Amino acid sequence: MHHSPNSDRPTQKHLGDRGLIILIALLSAFVPLSTDLYLPALPSMGDYFGVSATLTNLTLILFFLFFSLGLLFWGPLSDRYGRRPVLLVGLALYIAASAGCVISWDIWHLIAFRILQAVGGSAASAVAMAMVKDVYDGRKRESVLALVQSMVVISPAAAPVLGAFMLPYTSWQGLFAVLALIGVVSMAGALVLQETIPSRYNGTMAQSVRRLGAVLKNPGFASLLIVFSLVSTASLAFVSASSYIYQEGFGLSEQWYSFYFALNAVGLIAGPFLYLWLSRHASRRSIVASGFVVMIGSGVLVCLFGSLGPLAFALTLFPASLMGSAVRPGGAFLMLDQQREDTGSASALINCTGLVFGSAGMVLVFLFGKNLVLGLGAINVAVGVACLLGWGAIGKRGLVRF
């Protein structure tokens, strides 16, 4: 595969540089938007369908599972056929499936449409990070990754608040109608998008998919992938359990739950900006290591004091949210930097593996039964320790140039 220099890559005539960054941020936000908007409605959805919390949670867990599988399909496909065609097809499926969620008449139909929604939405995430690699290089790429991820995590803060305030005026069906509208807005941006890929993979479709294996054989990429995907185990465990902790554990209303959820999301928003500031004064290696140490300490505090009340839980978890988000831009930059080719496949693997580990966290936290606060604290401690050890091993073996 031949790569053109950046100067040869087409500028965005209609979107411009700022519009392209906003579109990439919106596409990257499809996971939190598609889950967090209806988090406040999870308990009431269980009552509506007359099913258990475990069955209702399948609308989350299976979404993440099929979203992950979809990434592995769309990512290599975008290397072969281009980012724009893949994006248009995926968004069309996402919009149709979101409309299907609105008219679901039982939990199983909702789960089926959520699976289709996941497959369509995964196309957006598959091409988003690849587009950053297509267009930007060096420090500019790292800055855009940080900015995009900061914009992305605004959605976990805003989506539950929006969902909670919509519920008194609409039903959970109305929340899925909003997701369909977000899909339509994204489609409008995709229609005016000019192709970003500098050159395409010339092999067959089957060969394109097999490039996933070639990327995984890169030891530097694979080791970084495991370390930074582990972070998602802790963050998605919180997403899965948060409504039950705040509403059923602490007895808060849907509106108060959304505010406390947003408090932790502030840490997610600030993390990438904190990373950019720290990177002017410290090395990437030390920033990431410090982030993992903070996650461990925060997890210990959650175990000790998180059960005292909603504010204590939110404040003790905040450092983990902040630093878990702060390590992501550096991790994403390093992973993309390991691959000169197969950017779509690399992007797909980054997103997919993060979601797989995150889905495991969503299941693990409920193994603690009613002790969800203790479970989240323990998961943060375990993730922090594992990531710190892995990060140290990568440095000692010289697998990656920091």
Q: What structural keywords apply?
A:
single chain; 402 residues; Growth Hormone, Chain: A; 80% helix; MFS_trans_sf; transmembrane helix; MFS_dom; Multidrug effflux MFS transporter
In short:
The protein is mainly alpha-helical and 402 residues long. It is built from 16 helices and no strands. The protein has one domain: Growth Hormone, Chain: A (Up-down Bundle), CATH 1.20.1250.
- Strand composition percent: under 5%
CATH fold naming: Growth Hormone, Chain: A
Biggest beta sheet summary: none
Distance between the termini: 26 Å
Write down the domain tally: 1
SSE string: HHHHHHHHHHHHHHHH
Structure description:
- 80% of the residues lie in helices and 0% in strands.
- The protein has 402 residues and is an all-alpha fold.
- Helix 5 crosses helix 10 (205-216).
- The longest helix is centred in the middle third of the chain and has 31 residues, at 219-249.
- It starts with 15 loop residues before the first helix and ends in a 5-residue tail after the last helix.
Set down the secondary structure blueprint:
Blueprint: H1 16-28, H2 30-36, H3 42-49, H4 53-56, H5 58-81, H6 83-102, H7 107-135, H8 138-166, H9 172-192, H10 205-216, H11 219-249, H12 254-278, H13 284-305, H14 310-337, H15 343-364, H16 372-397
Helix pairs in contact: 1-7, 1-8, 5-6, 5-7, 5-10, 5-15, 6-7, 6-9, 7-15, 8-12, 8-14, 11-12, 11-14, 11-15, 11-16, 12-14, 13-14, 13-16
